[in-house]
Amino acid sequence: MNIFLARMRSRPETGSFLGFIMFFIIFSIFGDHFFTLGNQTSLFTLTAELGIICIGVGFLMISGEFDLSVGSVYALGGIVFMMLAPHMHSLLALLLVMMIAAAIGWFNGYITTKHLIPSFIVTLSMMLIIRGLIYMITSGRITSHKGDLFVLTFFSAKMSELPGFLSDFRPSHFWFIGLLILFHYILFNTRYGNHVFATGINKPAAVRMGLNTDWIKTKNFMICSCFAALSGIIAVSRFRMGSPNIGIGLELEVIAAAVIGGISLYGGTGAIIGILFSAFLICMIRNGLLLMGAPPYWYSAFVGVIVLISTIVNIKIQPRKTKY
Amino acid sequence: MNSNSLVSMKNISKSFGSIEALKNANFDLNKGEIVGLAGDNGAGKSTLVKILAGVFPYDSGEIFLEGNEVKLSSPKEAIQLGIESIYQDLALFEDMDLSRNIFIGREPVKNKLGGLIKNLDKETMNRETLNALKMIKINITDTSQLVHTLSGGQRQSVAVARAVYFRAKIVIMDEPTAALSVKEVQKILDLALELKAEGIGVIIITHNLHHMFSVADRITVLQNGTLAGNKKIKDTNIKEIENLIIGGHEED
After folding, report:
1. Contact A208 B85 (CB under 8 A)
2. HSE-up of residue A89 (Cα within 13 Å, Cβ side)
3. Is A137 helix (H, G, I), strand (E, B) or coil?
4. Under an 8 A CB cutoff, do A205 and B107 touch?
5. pLDDT tens, B61-120?
6. Residue A189: its pLDDT value, please?
7. Which helix (H) or strand (E) is A21 found in, with range?
8. What is the domain-level CATH number for residue A271?
9. With an 8 Å Cβ cutoff, is A206 touching chain B?
C-alpha cells in the first residue's frame, strides 16, 4: 500500500484526479440533474473541445514554452472553415484550415526560438493579431455553415442512430480520448516524447547532446495551433455557426486545465492523461455551480481558487527534489 | 601531419561581439594521448573545446579530424564524428532516469506503424545502461532511478558513462574534478588513463595542475585566446606552466 501511495504521489496527474473525484461527488449530491447521462455527455462535449487544445498546449508547456494565441486560433479555425466550406468539400476545407494553423504555429515557434523573444510576448501579439483578422474577415458578424455536412457529422453530430445510451455520445468524445491516449503514449514511449521532456528539463544540456531544441519547440507550437483550430472546427460543427467572439479567454482556461492536470509552468514535468480530469473538472465547475443554483459569476473565481490549490498540492505532494 | 594525429585545430578565431575569445589559436591531439589544456579564466580554454564539440561555430580557421578537414556546425555532428564531452555542469537531465540520460539523442528505437512512431526500446536501453556503468566500474543496479536522487560522484559517473559508452575517438573533460572528493577524483583520473590505453584521445581542462600533471602527456597553455606554450610533461614542471599561464612567455 505504501509503495502504491508513493507511486501515486510521484505522478503528475494524481492531483487533478483527486480534485475531479471530490467535485464530482459534491455536485452529484447537491446539484439537481448533475448526475444524469444527458448532463454528463454534454459536459464531456465541452471537455473534449477544451481538452483537445490542452493536449497541444501540454506538449508545448512540457518543452518549456506556452501559447496564448490558442483562443484566437480556435475562433479562426472555426470561422475560416465555415467560410471555405461552401466552395469545396468540407474535408478539403478542414485540411486547408489545418495548414493555416500549422503555419501560425510555425511562425510562433520561429519568432520565439530564432529571435529569442519570450513565447508569452510572441503569442500574446499573435492572439491580438488573429482576433483583429477575424473581426476584419467577418466584419464582426456571425458566420454560419452552408457547406456539406461530411466533417460536421464526423466530429459533432449526435450519434442518435446508435442504440441505447450510446445515442447521447458525439464523435468528438472519441476523437478526444483517442488523441489523449495517442499523445500520452508519444510523450512517454517514443523518441520524440523523450526529446520534448529533455528540452523542457534542461535546454542547454539538450542542445549540447545534439538535440535540435528549436525545431522540437517549433513542432510543438505547430501541434498546439493545429489542435486549437481542430477544436474550433469541432465547436462550430456543433452550432453550425460562430460569432467572431468565440474563444475569447479560452487560452487562460486551457492553461488552467494544463496546470491543474499537473503540467508545470516551468516545463519539464507533466503527463497528458491528467488533462482528462482537469478539463472535465473545469467544465464540471461551470455546469455544477449552475445546477446547484449558484450565480454564474462565481465560476471564474472558483476556477482561480482551484488553479492555486492544485498548483500548491502538485508541488507539495510530489516528492521533494533533493538538490540541483 | 603525422598519421597519429587525431585532431588538429589551426588558426581558430572566435569572437563574441567585441570580445575576441580566440585569436588564431592552434591545438593538436594525437591518438592515445592525454593533453591538458591550461590557462587562466577567460584564456579561451572552454571556447576552444566547445568549438570542437560543435557547440559554438568558429569564425575562421580549420579543423582536421584524423587528417580530413571537417566542418563542425552542430553538437550532433561532433557527436557523430566521435567527439564526446563531459561537461562541467555534467549536462544531465535531473527528472529523467539513468537510461534516458545515457541514451538522450541516441535512443535505440523499434519502429511502429512503418516508422511513423519511433518507440523507445526500453529493454535495450536498460540493459545497455547497466553495461555502460559496468564499463566504468560503477555499481548502480537500478536504471530507473532519477538523476536528482544520485550523489555528486554518481552523477559524474553517469556523465562519464554516457561519453565512454558510444565508442568515442576523443573525450573532452571540462573541469571533471571540480567538486569531487579525493577518491572520486582518482577514479576520474584513472578513467582518463584507461581511455588513453584504448587509443582514445583525451583533452582535460582543470585548474588543478597537480591533477593535470598526474595524467597528461602534454600540456597546452592558452593565454588571451592564443597559444602560449606546448610542453611535454617530461620536459616541464608546474612552475614553468604556472609562468606560462600568468605571463604568456616562456622562461629559460
Report:
1. yes
2. 4
3. helix
4. no
5. 999 999 899 999 899 999 999 999 988 788 999 889 999 999 999 999 988 877 788 899
6. 93
7. helix A14-30
8. 1.10.3470
9. yes
Whether the CA torsion B233, B20, B176, B192 is positive or negative: it is: negative
Nearest alpha carbon to residue B82 among B217, B201, B216, B220: B201
Name the residue among B233, B241, B221 with its Cα closest to residue B37.
Answer: B221
Measured at the CA of B242, the angle between CA B238 and CA B245, to 5 degrees, comes to 140
Per the structure, how many domains does chain A have?
Answer: 1
Amino acid at B25: A
Whole-model pTM: value is 0.89
Whether residue A319 lies within 8 A of chain B, CB to CB, comes out as no
How far is the C-alpha of A122 from the C-alpha of B14, rounded, in Å? 31
Q: What is the ipTM of this complex?
A: 0.84
For residue B63, the cross-strand partners are B9, B70
B 75-94 residues with CB < 8 A to A: 75-76, 78-80, 85, 87, 89-94
Tell me, yes or no, whether A133 lies in a domain.
Answer: yes
- For the record, the C-alpha cell of B134 comes out as 559496468
**Rounded distance between C-alpha atoms, residue B101 and residue B79, angstroms:** 15
8-state DSSP, B112: E
Tell me the pLDDT tens digit for each residue of A250-260: 999 999 999 98
Chain B hits for A198, CB-CB cut-off 8 Å, are 93, 96, 100, 104-105
User: Nearest CB to A323: which of B89, B122, B148?
Assistant: B148
Give me the residue spans of the domains in chain B.
93-167
**Alpha-carbon distance A187 to nearest alpha carbon in chain B (angstroms):** 10
B141 or A137: whose pLDDT is higher? Answer: A137
Name which of A196, A202, A263 to mutate to probe chain B: the one with the most chain B Cβ atoms within 10 A of its Cβ. A202
Whole-angstrom distance, CA of residue B113 vs CA of residue A223: 20
Q: How many CB pairs under 8 A join A and B?
A: 83
Asked if residue A167 lies in contact with residue A161, where contact means CB atoms within 8 angstroms, the answer is: yes
Domain range for A179 is: 39-156+173-317
